[in-house]
Amino acid sequence: MNCLLGPDGQIPHFLGSMVNLRYLNLSGIPFNGRVPSQLGNLSKLQYLDLGQDTGYPGMYSTDITWLTKLHILKFLSMSGVTLSGIVEWPHTLNMIPPLRVIDLSWCQLDSANQSLPHLNLTKLEKLDLSGNDFEHSLGSGWFWKATSLKYLGLGENRLSGQLPDTLGNMTYLQVLDISDNGTTDMRMTGNLENLCSLEILDISINGINGDIAVLMKSLPQCTRKKLQQLDLASNNFTGTLPNFISDFTRLSILSISYNSLVGPIPPQLGNLTSLASLDLSNNLLTGSIPAEVGKLMYLTTIDMSRNHLNGSVPIEIGSLINLISLDLSNNRFTGVITEEHFANLTSLKEIDLSSNNLNILLNSDWRPPSTLESAGFASCQMGPLFPPWLQRLKTNGLDISSNALKGKFPDWFWSAFSHANYLNISNNQISGSLPTHMDGMAFKELYLGSNRLTGPIPTFPTNITKLDISNNTFSETIPSNLEASQLEVLSMHSNQIGGYIPESICKLQQLAYLDLSNNILEGEIPQCFDIFNIEFLILGNNSLSGKIPTFLQNNTDMKFLDLAWNKFSGRLPTWIGKLVNLRFLILGHNKFSDNIPVGITKLGYLQYLDLSGNSFSGAIPWHLSNLTFMTTLHKRAASYISQPT
């Protein structure tokens, strides 16, 4: 169908002459311009799909009354077509009684609270209005009259208030999605008693308050036996998970993350034998994981991270043959993880046990039953030496930070993980040096900070985006051939790196964070006129000299500039006032002289200013008092600010 795209990219008008057409699907074709009203000539049309990719807002219409000529239209999708400014769109659609499906999602519609005294859309089964600009009460929408609906999508608007009692008349409703309305006063007080056909309920990301048990109890028994997906994530629900959660026997997806639930996970959860995805993360749950979870043989995803769960991890988890992702990180689990926990996890791709007090005790010849894509064991215990079974993980991502590992990297280590994209070994006690050449490895993120590594800095992979080798004892110089054009974060602070900052650092055009502080670097900062993205430049406590480089003056994104304890000299440039987003300016203990530029008083977001230990002269600018984020200055230094003359 892409052959329809002419030189102007618009829907060709000749389509309006194909008067016998019954089916027209132009979805996904990147048309632009006005939707031609000639499509209204297709009086025999039953199916019309003009849906656009939401990332390509190319088509628009300011008048859709031509739709009323399509007297037998059953399916209409204009998803992604800009319809902003069309107010009476419900009245237009109400003149096409045969409609069964209406998709006007992401159309920039302003409201859905128009008055329709009589609704003609008695056959309407699906209505998707998600992703528009509705900013009115939820209960005022005309769509609550459409009692034939099976699907109602209202997500990603700005609707507020409570569900109306008329919801109870929608007895055919199978899917109700009112997620992500960005409100704080939505209330689930509507009549839910008659929703016996409901299979999917998504009210996530709405800031809804209330007791979780009260909400679940408001769903009648007929709904509990029917419901397959329940998403309550990112609200303000409190209380404990009720024991009668076992009534929801057909649930395949249960998400209650990012709430304030307390208390234990009820063992009755084990009765939800159809459950495929369980997300209880980011709550305040306590107690242990019930062994009954091991009965949920269809589970593919478990996320219980960021709670206060304790006790040991039940070995019954090892029987979940379909489990793909397991995240128990950031809890208070104790005890030992053994081969039994992995016994039948043949589908496992992702595991994260980080930030617990677990001891990973696996036999040296243990082989994982599946090929892991990522493994997180941060703050667990698996040392003091590198366990041999690590070399058999063959994972794309590994986090073994804060594991009390000691000694040198084993001979097999770098070959075993040369294809990994993510590797975090920071905050251990690893000694020795790195391989001379690492440029052939696949790392995109490599964290080796806070160890006891020594020797020269090797060449790193050219596709790396984040590199941290800080707080070690690396010596010699920064490699002169920095070729990592995608590097965003580079942290080498607190080593013994000497020499000059190489000119090749100017090739790092995506660099946003650079920390070379606490080394023995000397010379001037290279003039890198192509680096505009840097937000954090931290070079303090070296022996750098010269002036503040002029390439910084156009960098309005900069938030943190630390050049303290160096040998910089000359006047502070007046253009420093252009760095309007600067939060921290630390220039103390250098050789700066002359006046403090008045432009510094334009840094309205500045929170911390250190100019101490320099050779400034003249008056301190009185308008420093305009820096309202610097409360410390107001309290302690106001009496030292010179009065204007």
Automatic annotation (TrEMBL):
Cited SMART domains: LRR_TYP (SM00369)
Chief location bin: membrane
Pfam families xrefs: LRR_1 (PF00560), LRR_8 (PF13855)
Keyword field: Cell membrane, Glycoprotein, Leucine-rich repeat, Membrane, Receptor, Repeat, Signal, Transmembrane, Transmembrane helix
Intracellular or extracellular location(s): Cell membrane; Membrane
Membrane topology: Single-pass membrane protein
Alphabetized InterPro entries for the sequence: Leu-rich_rpt, Leu-rich_rpt_typical-subtyp, LRR_dom_sf
GO cellular component annotations of the record: plasma membrane
Protein name: Uncharacterized protein
